């Protein structure tokens, strides 16, 4: 296959210029195109005033930049895209890339879609950046490592819209490092909340873990979450005000073995000791759900379809319950996560890869992805168009959620701590001390 050709001048101009929502015009290799754009801008300025003139000029600049990209392209444009292996993601991405090719039908595209989980994207990319996908979906906690490795193309210029203006502030901030945007926000729903069957539980029942387990025992059903997982376990300790943070060298600070942490650990043991409580992973939870033995469970939007189908008219969702800490009802916290679309800095076709990434994350595409996958769009206008109990629950929980920023030494000790608490450890101070020692151990150089 022939290779595309994007001139060095065009690429440099695109990276150097900030279109500010399709703002200033990129440098053009063609003087005729420059003259045309200038005439268009002059006409807009003389016939319209204020914002209308600015918008017209911005649109002209965007059209010019895309026209330049098309004019500078020779032969087939090869782009490899990685996204979730889930069928819904694979299908909707295929539909969107087909529409992208239709929109730019003057160009011969060869877009291939690979199945790489967002959670595994960083590790897969850093195995060999040159061989990795040109465009990929990844989780927000991977931004720092990808930027430090030089794997992400900075979003210093845009073609069709400005991600900083259309997406939620939290997603833009999470995609930004040292004041530079390195990815296009895609979803704002990588968090967790409580699914429940309202035919069994009332709103009062699901307000606290104590009420929830008591009602589950009475009703002969099970409730639960995966306590032996640092992602979920964090919610208890953070809710009570305990600290977990990451240093510049990716080591961690953690005070979970404090007096408050000890009280939290005791509360977790109290909850998990209920005969109605189960600490299981999603796969086992879905099996229990389908067997009709799971009345409530902490999970995320990726399981919406299963709970909605099984609970039927009783399908409901809400923020996480409170839990008792030294006699005080304490709201459980959580992690709030986002998914981004990134462009490989070593992409074979950087310009087209960036335009594709923009297309996949614009308002229309985010809405399509949200409807297909039940995930919440980062785009604020698209998010407002989706009516979902799960997303409403996630929004309610977001007030108590933190972005996941933690070093790798956290996960194994946290998992072990969670399992120890589920197993009913008798020396809670000892297991907390061991966990904190592992979480805060120095990072090996």
TrEMBL record:
SUPFAM superfamilies: Periplasmic binding protein-like II
InterPro entries: SBP (IPR006059)
CDD domains reported in the protein's UniProt record: PBP2_oligosaccharide_1
Keyword Transport attributed: yes
GO molecular function (one): maltose binding
BP GO terms, sorted: maltodextrin transmembrane transport; maltose transport
Signal peptide: 1-20
Source taxon at top rank: Bacteria
Keywords carried by this UniProt record: Coiled coil, Signal, Transport
Claim: Signal is one of the keywords in the record: yes
Parts forming coiled coils: 79-106
One GO cellular component, as annotated: ATP-binding cassette (ABC) transporter complex, substrate-binding subunit-containing
UniProt record similarity statement: Belongs to the bacterial solute-binding protein 1 family.
PANTHER family hit by this protein: MALTOSE-BINDING PERIPLASMIC PROTEIN, MALTOSE_MALTODEXTRIN-BINDING PERIPLASMIC PROTEIN
Record-given protein name: Cyclodextrin-binding protein
Species name: Roseburia intestinalis
Taxon lineage: Bacteria, Bacillati, Bacillota, Clostridia, Lachnospirales
């Amino acid at each position: 296959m022939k290779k595309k050709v994007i001139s060095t001048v065009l690429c440099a101009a695109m990276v150097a210029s900030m279109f500010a929502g399709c703002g200033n015009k990129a440098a053009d290799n063609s003087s005729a195109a420059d003259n045309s754009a200038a005439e268009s801008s002059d006409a807009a300025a003389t016939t319209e005033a204020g914002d209308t003139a600015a918008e017209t000029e911005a649109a002209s600049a965007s059209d010019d930049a895309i026209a330049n990209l098309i004019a500078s392209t020779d032969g087939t444009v090869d782009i490899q895209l990685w996204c979730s292996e889930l069928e819904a993601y694979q299908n909707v991405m295929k539909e969107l890339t087909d529409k992208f090719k239709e929109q730019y039908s003057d160009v011969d595209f060869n877009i291939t879609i690979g199945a790489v989980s967002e959670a595994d994207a960083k590790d897969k990319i850093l195995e060999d950046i040159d061989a990795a996908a040109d465009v990929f979906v990844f989780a927000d906690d991977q931004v720092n490592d990808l930027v430090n490795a030089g794997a992400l193309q900075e979003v210093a210029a845009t073609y069709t819209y400005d991600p900083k203006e259309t997406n939620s502030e939290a997603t833009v901030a999470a995609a930004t490092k040292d004041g530079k945007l390195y990815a296009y926000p895609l979803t704002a729903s990588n968090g967790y909340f409580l699914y429940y069957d309202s035919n069994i539980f009332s709103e009062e029942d699901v307000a606290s873990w104590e009420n929830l387990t008591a009602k589950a025992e009475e009703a002969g059903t099970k409730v639960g979450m995966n306590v032996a997982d640092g992602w979920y376990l964090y919610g208890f300790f953070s809710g009570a005000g305990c600290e977990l943070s990451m240093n510049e060298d990716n080591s961690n600070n953690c005070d979970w073995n404090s007096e408050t942490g000890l009280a939290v650990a005791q509360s977790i043991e109290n909850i998990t000791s209920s005969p109605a409580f189960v600490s299981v992973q999603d796969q086992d939870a879905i099996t229990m759900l389908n067997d009709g033995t799971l009345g409530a469970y902490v999970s995320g939007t990726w399981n919406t379809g299963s709970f909605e189908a099984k609970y039927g008219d009783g399908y409901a969702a809400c923020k996480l319950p409170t839990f008792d800490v030294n006699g005080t009802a304490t709201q459980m916290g959580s992690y709030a996560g986002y998914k981004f679309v990134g462009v490989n800095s070593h992409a074979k076709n950087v310009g087209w890869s960036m335009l594709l990434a923009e297309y996949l994350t614009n308002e229309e595409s985010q809405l399509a992805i949200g409807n297909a996958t039940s995930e919440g769009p980062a785009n604020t206008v698209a998010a407002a168009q989706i009516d979902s109990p799960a997303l409403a629950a996630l929004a309610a929980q977001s007030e108590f959620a933190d972005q996941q920023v933690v070093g790798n030494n956290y996960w194994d000790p946290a998992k072990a701590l969670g399992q120890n608490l589920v197993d009913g450890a008798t020396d809670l101070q000892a297991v907390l001390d061991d966990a904190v020692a592992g979480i805060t151990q120095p990072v090996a150089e």
